[in-house]
């Protein structure tokens, strides 16, 4: 079979081929961009998850250290931390009824929490340093690179590590010396604020890697399908591709600002909007308020009825919050079981009234799933923009109000 040369092709065919080539290149570039963006969003999500786990461990350790360690009853499987004796601390005490309690310092507690997470989800934590009290905490190769990076001024370090158990996302951030650390680490002559090591977080990466592979296959399949359709009708494909590209970009944009579980805006979008409304209120002399809403005893719901029912509770609460808002208010999931509302153009009294209506609406709501019916309550903190406020102080006052509502017995609204 002989194919016509390029010179003998009519102008329409040449235009068709040239147009098909140009559009094909554009389509490949667009889908590649979508693929790379999806990858980045997935990687950012994993990194944010790892950073959240790191922050959780640091806060729990700080709580432990603030009490000088926590004693637990020495039952089967609970062993004495022999390293405490090496620094002059007797870990075991005997109480009047003969029971033995042993001391859990922050390092050992971190290890035991890691064991719990590892059994449940495969996530692991490890505290390490170049100067060790416990040789079991010696850094592995990844952690050695991370510690070197911290010495160079970096504040976090991450990479994907492949091993016999499959790929894992490794993340590490530095651990700063606090006053409570000096009791155990005095011999190293640390000063408060020094970097004495770090905590690494290891997250199984196989599922995410499978999602990345699936994304790649989907992108390749869509690209081939688009090219085949273009060969049949370039004009129709051009119009269809324009619609698809627009829909894909809108979907990605919507996904990047929406909380997947509740459908509310996510924390990143909420804080961006909060910052924008704060600047607008300062320029125009307008009003602005922040309402923080936290579910009471949510962990008890998860523990009693399971996480799927807990997810249903979060969805129903989010729906109730959104139904109570005005068109220009913005609600978002602030984190976990905590929600926030950015309220603009309303007085402090009206803002408090709105917060209280939301609280009452949730309190009166029945959440059902099969044979399970529960009622939930919320603690609500409200803060309105005042003279001299910064973005941080306004957020802090709303958070303090929420804390006060919790402290005063929950199921109430507090305005600061």
Question: What can you see in these coordinates?
Answer:
The protein has helices spanning about 10-65, 80-85, 105-120, 140-150, 180-185, 205-230, 235-255, 265-285, 300-305, 305-325, 350-365, 390-405, and strands at about 70-75, 90-95, 100-105, 125-130, 155-165, 165-175, 195-205, 290-295, 330-335, 340-345, 365-370, 370-375, 380-385, 415. With about 425 residues, it is of the alpha+beta class. It has a five-stranded mixed beta sheet with strand order 9-10-8-13-14, with helices on both faces. The chain has a four-stranded antiparallel beta sheet with strand order 4-7-6-5, with helices on both faces. Helix 1 packs across helix 3. The longest helix has about 55 residues, at about 10-65. It is globular, with a radius of gyration of 28 Å. The chain starts with 10 loop residues before the first helix and ends with a strand. The model has no long low-confidence stretch (mean pLDDT about 85).
In short:
Helix content is 53%, strand content 20%. By secondary structure, the chain is α+β, with helices and mostly antiparallel strands.
- Helical segment tally? 12
Rg calc: 28 Å
Q: pLDDT under 50 segments (min length 5)?
A: none
- Write out the strand line-up for the largest beta sheet, numbering strands in chain order: 9-10-8-13-14
User: Major sheet, described briefly?
Assistant: 5 strands, mixed
Structural class: alpha+beta
Quaternary class = single chain
Give the helix/strand layout.
Elements: H1 11-66, E1 70-73, H2 82-86, E2 92-94, E3 100-104, H3 106-121, E4 124-128, H4 141-151, E5 157-163, E6 166-176, H5 182-185, E7 195-204, H6 206-232, H7 234-257, H8 267-284, E8 288-295, H9 298-305, H10 307-324, E9 330-335, E10 338-344, H11 348-364, E11 366-369, E12 372-375, E13 378-384, H12 391-407, E14 413-415
Parallel strand pairs: 13-14
Antiparallel strand pairs: 1-3, 2-3, 4-7, 5-6, 6-7, 8-10, 8-13, 9-10, 11-12
Helix pairs in contact: 1-3, 1-6, 1-7, 6-7, 9-10, 10-11
């Amino acid at each position: 079979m002989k194919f016509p040369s390029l010179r003998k092709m009519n102008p329409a065919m040449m235009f068709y081929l040239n147009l098909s080539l140009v559009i094909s290149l554009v389509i490949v570039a667009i889908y590649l961009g979508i693929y790379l963006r999806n990858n980045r969003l997935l990687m950012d999500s994993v990194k944010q998850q790892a950073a959240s786990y790191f922050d959780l461990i640091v806060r729990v350790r700080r709580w432990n250290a603030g009490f000088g360690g926590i004693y637990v009853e020495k039952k089967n499987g609970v062993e004495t931390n022999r390293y405490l004796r090496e620094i002059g601390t007797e870990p075991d005490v005997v109480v009047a009824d003969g029971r033995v309690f042993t001391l859990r310092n922050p390092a050992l507690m971190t290890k035991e929490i890691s064991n719990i997470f590892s059994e449940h989800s495969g996530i692991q934590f490890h505290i390490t340093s170049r100067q060790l009290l416990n040789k079991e905490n010696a850094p592995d190769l990844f952690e050695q690179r991370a510690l070197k990076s911290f010495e160079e001024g970096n504040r976090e370090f991450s990479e994907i590590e492949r091993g016999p158990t499959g790929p894992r996302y490794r993340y590490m951030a530095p651990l700063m010396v606090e006053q409570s650390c000096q009791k155990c680490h005095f011999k190293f002559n640390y000063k408060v604020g020094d970097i004495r090591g770090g905590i690494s977080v290891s997250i199984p990466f196989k599922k995410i890697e499978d999602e990345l592979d699936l994304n790649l296959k989907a992108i390749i399949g869509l690209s081939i399908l688009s090219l085949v359709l273009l060969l049949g009708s370039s004009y129709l494909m051009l119009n269809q591709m324009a619609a698809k590209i627009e829909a894909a970009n809108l979907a990605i944009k919507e996904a990047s600002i929406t909380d997947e579980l509740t459908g509310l805006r996510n924390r990143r979008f909420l804080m961006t909007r909060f910052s924008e409304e704060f600047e607008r209120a300062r320029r125009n002399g307008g009003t602005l308020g922040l309402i923080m809403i936290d579910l009471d005893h949510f962990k008890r719901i998860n523990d009693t009825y399971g996480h799927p029912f807990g997810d249903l509770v979060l969805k129903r609460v989010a729906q109730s919050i959104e139904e109570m808002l005005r068109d220009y208010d913005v609600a978002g999931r602030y984190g976990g079981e905590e929600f926030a509302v950015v309220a603009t153009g309303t007085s402090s009294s009206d803002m408090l009234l709105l917060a209280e209506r939301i609280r009452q609406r949730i309190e009166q709501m029945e959440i059902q799933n099969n044979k399970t019916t529960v009622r939930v309550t919320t603690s609500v903190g409200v803060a309105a923009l005042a003279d001299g406020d910064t973005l941080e102080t306004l957020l802090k006052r709303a958070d303090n109000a929420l804390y006060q509502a919790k402290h005063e017995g929950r199921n109430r609204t507090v305005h600061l």
